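so my prof wants the structure for this chain in the tokens format not the other one, which i didnt know existed until like an hour ago. anyway here's the sequence
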Amino acid sequence: MSAVLTKPDIRRPGDIDVAWLTAVLQGAGVDAVVSGFEAKNVGTGQIGESVRFRLRYEREGEGAPASIVGKFPSPDETSRGTGIMLGNYLREVRFYQQLAPRAQVRTPRCWFTDTDETGGAFVLMMEDLAPAEQGDQLKGVSLDQARLVVEQAARLHGSFWGDEGLDELSWVQGSKAAPPSAVTPELVSGLWQGFRARYANRLQPHWIEVGEALTSRWQDFHAREPGPRTLAHHDFRPDNMMFGTPAGGHPVTVLDWQSFTYAPGATDVAYFLAGALPPDVRRAHEAELLALYHAELTRLGVTGYSMDDLRRDYGVGAFQLFLTAFFASMVVIQTPRGDDMFMQMLGSAADHILDHDALKALA
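here's what i got, hopefully its the right format
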């Protein structure tokens, strides 16, 4: 067979055929013709659906991949509605179209991506990173993996440190051009109270203390003057990363660019370390990991940002992890693994917040 070269359109996984896959590859500069494929869902995404396409070829040109991974809107109505309301789908497409080429962080190669004007329909075809394996929030990471991730965080943040051009992009959260956030104080408070009621028998008293303090003072905390801003991932956790294995793969690759914002980069560092390391390991190695992050920022040319500045921004960074845990749990499809994951995130964030006496920032 032969396929006519056309620009791919936006499709759901079940509508993808060999001609469409051929157009994706040829549009990316690979002289190949796909003759067949197998599709299988992969990953544990709450907002999107990911599918691996294993390819067979009539003509396998140089650089033709054995497989590619596609990302699509969630088939679940609640999760899909959340992705549209929060601009997640549109934001990720724009990241790969406009920002990924500048980012020094390791991201998957993008074969093709597009979205409609509403951000409600999109497709993202990416490099298959296997035999690297997806991280697991519930299992956490090793200390060596944490060091790799901290370096990647610095490379992301160093790429866009103080980049005021981000303020001109309406699809970047936290920018001057962004529309008013759908995350209002009333929404935050309502979701927290719903979370408290749903998970009452699983919540520890100090978790509730943090939640009540954060949600009752959300407006003031959200409006506080931030530290130096950069492009922050804002959902920087193992589930959104791929790690190399003995069989191969890049040491670490960062995925899921749906939530990035123009904000202090140390938020990502706190979000990751609080959630991905056991509290005792984090406490024992926190100073070392922050020094590694700061040294990498400095190597990349960031100046005027002291270790004291970093410790200040890092101390309050876990509030974002706490917020994500209860907020996301109430606006995406509920699953047993999701429940366990959100509990782990919330508890780890509360421990970090109290360790750093960060409730003072809400006063």
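also thought this was worth mentioning. Residues 13-127 form a domain with the Phosphorylase Kinase; domain 1 fold (CATH 3.30.200.20).
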